[in-house]
């Protein structure tokens, strides 16, 4: 194991439907922070049987508000491939912005944390397919942005992204235009038609819809396996929770 990795595995099995949610303490040297990760393991999970891996930014929100564990149970009942879900919580709104927003330098260290610390930790603790197309990054809003940017930065590590109402700026669009590596990706991308004046953690209201449509045009002109959807709603978990099932269905073929 990487010597930079400090970890303590304490499985506290909490039965959730047919799968199991566990809490794992993980210390990141890069971010100087100890996380209480939420980990969903499917009912089929057993030693020797490998699973796909999904890593969610805004992890606590995805477990509590997005009900991702229950949705995974339902997906596998309908024939989806087994998936382990790791939810990464953020310690505060301020720190979330520093880690996720592309205009903050800390977003680079957060991406390094995902690849160099968290991924080796998870893949040594659990049986997963250690392949780019077996790893999915998931996020809403800024969490969707950092998920997409991480795949663009480490295209040989992550090939799948679910991004719900991501924050898109000129930097993100530039990253897409300057490479065609994302043509190898599988991307699920949604935005609400009423997301034209979103109150952001930057302290201003912003139009999310227009830049997301611009991003969609770029991605549609490529060769990635890509699904784009506009829902009738605002920048809120009320809509992302309903939409998440569609993203999982696209990504895991059920």
UniProtKB/TrEMBL annotation:
<dbReference type="GO" id="GO:0016787">
    <property type="term" value="F:hydrolase activity"/>
</dbReference>
<dbReference type="InterPro" id="IPR050583">
    <property type="entry name" value="Mycobacterial_A85_antigen"/>
</dbReference>
<keyword id="KW-0378">Hydrolase</keyword>
<protein>
    <submittedName>
        <fullName>Alpha/beta hydrolase</fullName>
    </submittedName>
</protein>
<dbReference type="Pfam" id="PF00756">
    <property type="entry name" value="Esterase"/>
</dbReference>
<dbReference type="InterPro" id="IPR000801">
    <property type="entry name" value="Esterase-like"/>
</dbReference>
<dbReference type="InterPro" id="IPR029058">
    <property type="entry name" value="AB_hydrolase_fold"/>
</dbReference>
């Amino acid at each position: 194991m990487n010597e930079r990795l400090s970890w303590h595995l304490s499985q506290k099995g909490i039965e959730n439907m047919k799968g199991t949610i566990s809490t794992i303490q993980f210390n990141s040297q890069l971010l100087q922070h100890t996380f209480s990760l939420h980990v969903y393991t499917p009912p089929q999970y057993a030693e020797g049987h490998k699973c796909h891996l999904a890593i969610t930014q805004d992890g606590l929100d995805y477990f509590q508000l997005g009900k991702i564990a229950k949705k995974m149970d339902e997906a596998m009942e309908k024939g989806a491939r087994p998936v382990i879900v790791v939810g990464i919580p953020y310690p505060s709104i301020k720190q979330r912005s520093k880690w996720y927003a592309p205009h903050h330098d800390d977003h680079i260290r957060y991406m390094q944390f995902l690849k160099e610390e968290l991924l080796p930790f998870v893949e040594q603790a659990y049986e997963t397919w250690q392949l780019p197309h077996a790893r999915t990054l998931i996020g809403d809003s800024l969490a969707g942005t950092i998920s997409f940017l991480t795949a663009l930065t480490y295209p040989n590590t992550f090939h799948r992204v679910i991004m719900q109402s991501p924050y898109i700026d000129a930097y993100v669009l530039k990253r897409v235009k300057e490479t065609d590596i994302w043509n190898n990706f599988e991307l699920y991308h949604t935005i609400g038609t009423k997301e034209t004046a979103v109150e952001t953690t930057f302290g201003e209201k912003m139009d999310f819809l227009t830049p997301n449509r611009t991003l969609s045009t770029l991605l549609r002109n490529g060769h990635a396996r890509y699904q784009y959807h506009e829902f009738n709603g605002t920048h809120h978990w009320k809509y992302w929770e309903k939409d998440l099932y569609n993203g999982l269905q696209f990504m895991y073929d059920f």
